[in-house]
Amino acid sequence: MIRRKIIFSLVSLVAMFALAACTGKDDAAPKGDSSSNMMEGHEGMNHAGTSDVPEGLKEALNQTYPVGSKAIIHADHMPGMNEAEATISGAFDTTVYTITYTPLNGGEKVENHKWVIHEEIENATNDSYQAGDEVIINAEHMEGMDDVTATIDSAEETTVYMVDYQDTETGEDVTYHKWVTESELSQVE
Fold this sequence. Notes:
By secondary structure, this protein is mostly beta strands. The chain has a single domain, classed as Roll (SH3 type barrels). It is built from 1 helix and 8 strands; from the N terminus they run H-E-E-E-E-E-E-E-E. It has one helix at 2-22, and strands at 58-59, 70-73, 85-101, 110-117, 134-136, 149-166, 173-181, 185-187. Strands 1, 2, 3, 4, 5, 6, 7 and 8 form an 8-stranded antiparallel sheet that branches. Strand 6 and strand 7 (173-181) form a beta hairpin. It is globular. The two termini are 27 Å apart.
């Protein structure tokens, strides 16, 4: 357990230095204006996150992809993600949700956004939410998402992963992307 925490800390530290070295590169570009941020309602998706996780989120005990391991992403939450090789930067057991909401910044309605986790719901109950439930989101995956009222579209208990990868379209480094489910990953061959 201690070894795993040390490895996670080292991976986090290296990623933080790499991210700091890249700061300023795209500062002049307006958010949501880059082609790497555009995908069916995913304009403004945050490419680089932090290693911070919501309070109460529990590290997965039997994750298929341990922190520091490599996996191939099979998801298109944003352009340049599908088929990218990822490095696992976190693995957690929780309930993941797809949600529909209208951004607080006045953007277009976002349907079936993947993924928000149970710990990112304000005043979350102990039980998982069901399709049709309305919740308030405490996450900033996209512009205008934090503090928005959303409708749950689906719910699934699974292991979710925080991943680092290189955008296959732009070459941009994406760090601490939250979240990819276990079913959206496969072993590197």
